[in-house]
Each structure stands twice: as C-alpha cells, then as structure tokens.
Design a protein that fits this description.
Length: 202
C-alpha cells in the first residue's frame, strides 16, 4: 500500500512539474516574441524617417515646391534610387520625386500638373556662405523655359533672383520670385486655358 501511494505521489509530481515547465516555456516564448515585435517596430520607425534636409535632392525640391505645405515620406530607398512622396494636409499625394543615385538625376512629378523637373543635380560637399546664397538665387531651367518667366524677364531684371512654383494644377500655375535676400518681389499667375500671364509686384 505504501509503495502504491509513493508511486501515485511521484506520478502527480511529475505531471505537475511537466505542466509548470510547459507553462514557463510558453511564457518565455511569448516574451521573446514581444521583444522581437518591439525591435521590428523600432526598426520600422527608423526606416520611415522623413528628415530629407540632408539628402542631395532636397535643395532642388525646395526650389520647385513649397515644402512647408507638404509632409514628405520616403517610400523606397535602395542602392539604385530613392522615391519621396509629398502629401498635403488631407493625406493626398501631391508630388513625387525619383532620385537615380548613380546618375545623380532627379525627376519631380506633380500628380496634378505632370513633370516639373527632370535633370542632374550635385550635392556640394564643401561650400561657403556665398556659394550657398548663389545656389539659392539661381533659377532652374525648368522655370526659365516657362512663358510666365519670359514675360516677367522682359519687364524686370531677375539677376540674382530665385523662383519657386507654389501651385501648379490643371487650371493655373503660380510662381514666386525672391531676391538675393530672400524677400518675395514678384508673383506670376499663369492661366493655362487662355495662356494669360498675370504679374504681381509684391
């Protein structure tokens, strides 16, 4: 009888110990999964960083688009190219930039107005304050070829000015012209259906 009781107690202890071990193992596994998930989330946050100011395409984007009105997001970044989407306050895609790294070529597309920039860019690694000001004061070829620029250039000396497209849709295009000190001096409004150019002296 004592032998049978001892065997029964031993069997109960083995079963209880096994359950505890299984339970402990599941808890440890759950802990590992939680840690892995946390690491994945943190990694995802780093990958979706929207700080584009140090990117070589940033200056060209800033010249062609008023970036203060849009939220940038890097949707693709590999050894060949980087794609940035700019969304408005309603979360709608307004602009897309595609930077081909090896060629240092940038395309900027307005989802409402089409291609607004397609050219080669170069990030200056050793610049002075003066050269930075000159870069900001330059007007890209994509703007100098527009009819509203030619109309304004016939009426005013735009040497040292910078230009920025602040709106470009199917109906009209608005460009802001700033002097070397960054002061807004002129605004052009181009009505596409009638090819009419309106110049405002600010």
């Amino acid at each position: 009888m004592k032998t049978l009781l001892a065997i029964t107690v031993s069997a109960i202890m083995l079963v209880t110990g096994g359950i505890s071990a299984v339970s402990g193992g599941q808890q440890a596994q759950a802990s590992v999964q939680n840690t892995s998930t946390s690491s994945s989330i943190q990694s995802g946050e780093r990958a979706s960083s929207t700080d584009i100011k140090k990117l070589p395409e940033y200056e060209t984007l800033k010249v062609n688009i008023d970036l203060s009105n849009y939220k940038p997001g890097i949707t693709e970044d590999n050894a060949n190219k980087r794609v940035i989407l700019l969304k408005d306050d309603n979360g709608r895609n307004r602009y897309k930039s595609v930077y081909i790294k090896r060629e240092k070529r940038l395309e900027i597309v307005d989802f409402q107005g089409g291609l607004i920039f397609n050219g080669y860019i170069k990030k200056e690694t050793d610049t002075t304050t003066q050269t930075t000001k000159e870069a900001k004061a330059s007007i890209p070829d994509t703007i100098t070829k527009l009819p509203e620029y030619k109309t304004l250039a016939d009426k005013a000396d735009l040497s040292g000015y910078s230009a920025q497209i602040v709106e470009d849709n199917r109906g009209k295009r608005i460009i802001l012209f700033k002097d070397a000190s960054g002061q807004s001096k002129y605004k052009t409004i181009y009505v596409k259906s009638t090819s009419m150019v309106k110049i405002i002296n600010l």
